[in-house]
Write a structure and sequence with these properties.
By secondary structure, the chain is of the alpha+beta class. It is 37% helix and 29% strand.
Length: 342
């Protein structure tokens, strides 16, 4: 076993590509986004069999004077399973990560896909995850949509809403403007522009994703950012102009993206995680014909030397405060806060 730095190992992505459970987050590009944006340091624990990668547990060290030093697998991801072989699993890598955490004085180690391999682990948080099977043809895909979603798609088309797909910086800037407004509406600060600029640079422009934008003439109504790796796509971020919600641009964005993925031979579209308490978002994703399951996180506390529960901090008094801030101050809040979060 050994610790690998995917940012300096030129073979890392080729090795990871051999694993069927890999996600876009296991590759070096996501590590580069986190390093370039927030300065996080990679500790990717790996076991090799000959020249092949048998198992891997990617961890980024998050260092903050406010929230402490800790290991996270991986920051700002929806899910990130350890990669393991049938023979060896990955239990030894979790132990290696624990030993590293003790030496480096981490407060905790959090992993965002509890798979039963981590000895003694128990869920700290749970979320819904949704996956759309893209098998079949366009008509089958459309019929799997809930009736209200199909009506929303047709309404957006009648209103003249069009979807364009792009990978350029200008499209990411359009998304970011919509994203800031959406986050304010939800009472949450946006991640800083440099986070999305690095995503566009290291992932989108490198052919590992795309941006879908709904427009009425020259007016952007909604936009979403998607990643893809192998035959799997992932919906990562979405935003819209609330003033145009009755035109249902979000419905059309998702429907068009599903077709875009289908035409390129992708087998599935993952819709990311959903808080157990967010019934509205859960209903929307199920309405896209998605299958649902739960993903569990695990968090080991080095002080108490045990697994601990956590709190899904999506709602609270802070929502009211952030919702009142002017957009420049809201963006500043995100730039100040997110380097300390994960």
């Amino acid at each position: 076993m050994m610790t690998v730095d995917p940012l300096s190992d030129a073979n890392w992505d080729a090795l990871v590509a051999e694993h069927p459970r890999r996600t876009i987050f296991h590759g070096s590009a996501w590590a580069r986004v986190l390093r370039d944006t927030y300065g996080h340091r990679p500790f990717y624990f790996a076991r090799f069999e000959g020249r092949q990668l048998a198992a891997a547990l990617p961890v980024m060290e998050v260092s903050s004077p406010l929230t402490g030093l800790r290991g996270v697998s991986l920051p700002f991801t929806d899910f990130c399973p350890a990669l393991g072989s049938a023979r060896g699993g990955g239990a030894d890598l979790y132990q290696m990560a624990i030993e590293c955490g003790r030496q480096r004085r981490w407060k905790y180690l959090e992993c965002r896909s509890l798979d039963g391999v981590w000895k003694g682990s128990q869920p700290s948080l749970s979320f819904y995850v949704h996956r759309v099977d893209l098998g079949g043809d366009r008509e089958r895909l459309f019929q799997r949509l809930e009736g209200a979603v199909r009506r929303g798609v047709r309404k957006a088309e009648r209103e003249g809403v069009k979807i364009d797909f792009d990978s350029g910086e200008q499209s990411m800037r359009t998304f970011f403007r919509l994203h800031c407004g959406t986050r304010r509406r939800h009472g949450l600060p946006p991640q800083p522009w440099r986070f999305f600029a690095n995503i566009q640079r290291h992932l989108i422009s490198a052919g590992r994703g795309f941006i879908a934008t709904a427009r009425l003439g020259d007016k952007p109504l909604a936009a979403s950012v998607f990643f893809h790796d192998g035959r799997q796509a992932l919906y990562k971020f979405g935003a819209s102009d609330y003033a145009f919600q009755q035109m249902r641009p979000n419905n059309l964005v998702m429907w068009a993206a599903m077709n875009y993925c289908l035409e390129r031979g992708l087998a599935a579209l993952h819709l990311g995680r959903t808080s157990l308490s967010n019934a509205g978002l859960r209903h929307f994703k199920l309405g896209l014909g998605a299958d649902e399951e739960e993903v569990h996180y695990a968090k080991y506390d080095f002080v108490s030397q045990q697994f601990v529960r956590d709190v899904d901090r999506v709602d609270g008094w802070f929502n009211r405060v952030f919702a009142l801030l002017p957009l420049p101050l809201l963006r500043l809040s995100g730039a100040v806060l997110y380097p300390h979060l994960s």
